[in-house]
What does this fold into?
Amino acid sequence: MSMLHTVNKSPFERNTLVSCLGHATAGSAILLIEDGVYGALEGTAHSDLLRGALADHSVYVLGPDLNARGMTDDQIIEGVSVVDYGGFVDLTEKHDKVQAWL
It folds into this structure.
């Protein structure tokens, strides 16, 4: 069974991303949406945590949410894939279950 985890809270305000990574099994996918996209930024206190997660998880960031916050693709951690809304739908179809971390 494969699972997609969505994180919509900034790691600078809540520990949602840390909790998600602590519970996500190897092979799970993680999609950062809304303020969760801040977790994908290179050069922050959370960069090493997310970079480490790439060893066991596919990590994605929703491009429209990234852009809405004034960020660009070149500011995110290498290995994190940017998806559009169609890619978000594709991820939900690809995985058996979706776990939203609020």
About this structure: The first strand starts at residue 3 and ends at 7.
